[in-house]
Every structure is written in structure tokens, then in C-alpha cells.
TrEMBL record, chain A:
The gene is LOC115886859. This is small monomeric GTPase. It is found in: Endosome; Membrane. Keywords: Acetylation, Disulfide bond, Endosome, GTP-binding, Hydrolase, Lipoprotein, Membrane, Methylation, Nucleotide-binding, Prenylation. It is a lipid-anchor.
TrEMBL record, chain B:
This is NTF2-related export protein. It comes from Sitophilus oryzae. Its main location: cytoplasm. Has a role in nuclear-cytoplasmic transport of proteins and mRNAs. The lineage of its organism: Eukaryota, Metazoa, Ecdysozoa, Arthropoda, Hexapoda. Residues 10-124 form the NTF2 domain.
């Protein structure tokens, strides 16, 4: 196994906010995603180097995407399980997608591995400035109240896309470094040869972190 | 009322007609004619609603445009009130999304020489574990 950490992130938000385009942009326009039809999860992967305290760590990043089932209001708990960080997207040109962020956060706190999971809030489609309906000030205020980092992103131009993922990675790595017991963080109990394999595990209460 | 011997043909015919309307965004509003203003129940992904206006509100609120659908099986039974119980198993693809399995159950209630959808239960075939 030629990486030090396997990190799983989830992209969430209303349909049409640009989750798939966002991940597509981040993985350099490559679309070699894998689809697991039983749980309706699409995921793509990227390798990166994370630096901490003068050391380099090889990170294997898995980015999970929905397969459109949120359009039917249908997300199973399998989707949230085992993810270590969340990219929460809304569309700056769509008021409703911003209002729905509150619900997404509630869902996350309910289904994620702990009730204060690491989230980065992204106001996407920042390139469509003339169609913007959610002001930066309003989004920032909301993010601040909820204790979330906020970035204005564009999957079309690539603005802040990498930064959003890196911001989330830093939060997650910090959490892992500060975790008293590494076994309390999901996904650190072992590394997996087959990326399809880990999804078969069901989460046990013992894996829950105490944060 | 007696059992309707044509239940098999009615089931298949209904399913074909229903999805032809559902899958075409310009035709979807016409589904209103399939439901009763009060006497129709729908359970869509666990959300229960009653009556044609609320059902259409739900269907019109879906954000995809076209749907591609492959029906695997249509199983029908005659009901003792002359109605038809239908179970549909299939796969659907909304716009360019990956395909999902789905199941849908209908109860057709006789009304004069025709039927209306008295019950409609829909679920995507996605699970809590792989």
C-alpha cells in the first residue's frame, strides 16, 4: 500500500448546485468515477501530499458523490457512513439551495460519524456574478454562526475548488492528529486493499468518535 | 364487484401509459388525470401525501427533466372490488445521472368503465449497505 492515509470526503447539497462538476474540476477533469449501484454512490479518487510538522504524508483521497438520488429526496444512511469530511455546496444563483443548507447540516449531524463533523461550506457558481442572489456577506454570516469555513467557488473556472478540498483536509488531519485514540476516527482502523471493500463494513457503535 | 379477468392486460397497459406521461416533462402534468382529487394516496420515498393536487405538487417539484426507463417486470393481480394491484420493478435514469433501480406499486380502483390510481408507492432501489 503506497499511501499513509485513506481519506473519504462527501459532496453534499441540493441537486443542481454543481457537486459533480466540482469534483470533476478537482480531479483535473478526469471522470473515471466508480459507481456502486446498490447504495447509489459514485466516487472518484486523487492522490496528494499533506505536509505537517515538516513531514510529508501520502494521502489517498476518495471523493464520494451522490448519483442523483437526492432529486428523489432519497439518501440512505450508507451515504453518510464512514465519510471523514463533508463538502457542503449551494448555488450562489439559487436562493432555495442556500436555505436548504440548514437541513443538510441537520442531516449530517444526525448521520455522520459524530455530531460535529468537519464541514467546508462552498458557495458555488461564483463565476455567474450577474445571476448571484446570495450575497457573500449573508453566506459568511451564516457560516460564522454555524462555525464553518466558507469559500466562494466555481466549478466552471476552478476558483477556490482546490482550496476548499485542502481546507477540509487540514481540518480532518488536525482532528486525526489530535485524536487521543486513532481508532476513534473512522477509517483509521485499517487500510483497505480493495476500495470497494470498505463500503461493505457496517459501522459499529465502537467506531463512533466521542467528539 | 367481480374480479376483472383482464387484470394482466390492464396492468401492462396502465404501466406503459403512466410512464409515457411521467417520463416526458411536457406530458407530466397530464398525470393529474390518473389520480382522484381526494381518494388517491401516494407514498414517495416514504413521504405520504393524499389527493391529486398534492400529488401533482410533488411530481412537478422533481428537478429532473426526462427519464429513461427500463421495465424489468410488471406483476398484476385482480382485486375483489374489481380493481387491479400492480407491482413494477425496473431501472430509471434521470437526465444524465447514473441509473437506479426502482419499485412502484399501484392500486387501480374501478370508476365507471375506467380506473383511477387509488394507491401509489414509489422507492428507489438503494440500500443502507453495499
Amino acid at each position: 500500500m503506497d499511501y499513509d492515509y485513506l481519506i473519504k470526503f462527501l459532496a453534499l447539497g441540493d441537486s443542481g448546485v454543481g457537486k459533480t462538476s466540482f469534483l470533476y474540476q478537482y480531479t483535473d477533469g478526469t471522470f473515471n468515477s466508480r459507481f456502486i449501484s446498490t447504495v447509489g454512490i459514485d466516487f472518484r479518487e486523487k492522490r496528494m501530499i499533506y505536509q505537517s510538522k515538516g513531514r510529508n504524508y501520502r494521502v489517498h483521497l476518495q471523493l464520494w458523490d451522490t448519483a442523483g438520488q437526492e432529486r428523489f429526496r432519497s439518501l440512505t444512511t450508507a451515504f453518510y457512513r464512514d465519510a471523514m469530511g463533508f463538502l457542503l455546496l449551494f448555488d450562489l444563483t439559487n436562493e432555495h439551495s442556500f436555505l436548504e443548507i440548514r437541513n443538510w447540516i441537520e442531516q449530517l449531524r444526525l448521520h455522520a460519524y459524530c455530531d460535529t463533523p468537519d464541514i467546508v461550506l462552498c458557495g458555488n457558481k461564483a463565476d455567474l456574478e450577474d445571476r448571484r442572489v446570495v450575497t457573500e456577506w449573508r453566506a459568511r454570516e451564516f457560516a460564522e454562526i454555524n462555525g464553518l469555513p466558507y469559500l466562494e467557488t466555481s466549478a466552471a473556472t476552478g476558483q477556490n475548488v482546490s482550496r476548499a478540498v485542502e481546507t477540509l483536509l487540514e481540518k480532518v488531519m488536525l482532528r486525526m492528529e489530535t485524536a487521543v485514540d486513532m481508532a476513534m476516527v473512522p477509517g483509521q482502523s485499517g487500510k483497505f486493499k480493495d476500495t470497494g471493500e470498505f463500503m461493505l463494513r457496517s459501522s459499529s457503535p465502537a467506531q463512533k468518535c466521542t467528539c | 364487484m367481480a374480479l376483472n379477468a383482464q387484470y394482466e392486460a390492464i396492468g401492462k397497459g396502465f404501466v406503459q401509459q403512466y410512464y409515457a406521461l411521467f417520463d416526458d416533462p411536457t406530458q407530466r402534468p397530464n398525470l393529474v388525470n390518473m389520480y382522484n382529487v381526494e381518494l388517491s394516496f401516494m407514498t414517495f420515498e416514504g413521504v405520504q401525501i393524499q389527493g391529486a393536487p398534492k400529488i401533482m405538487e410533488k411530481l412537478n417539484g422533481l428537478t429532473f427533466q426526462k427519464i429513461n426507463r427500463i421495465i424489468t417486470a410488471v406483476d398484476s393481480q385482480p382485486m375483489f372490488d374489481g380493481g387491479v394491484l400492480i407491482n413494477v420493478l425496473g431501472r430509471l435514469q434521470a437526465d444524465e445521472d447514473p441509473p437506479h433501480a426502482f419499485s412502484q406499486v399501484f392500486v387501480l380502483k374501478p370508476l365507471g368503465s375506467s380506473f383511477f390510481v387509488q394507491h401509489d408507492i414509489f422507492r428507489l432501489g438503494i440500500h443502507d449497505s453495499a
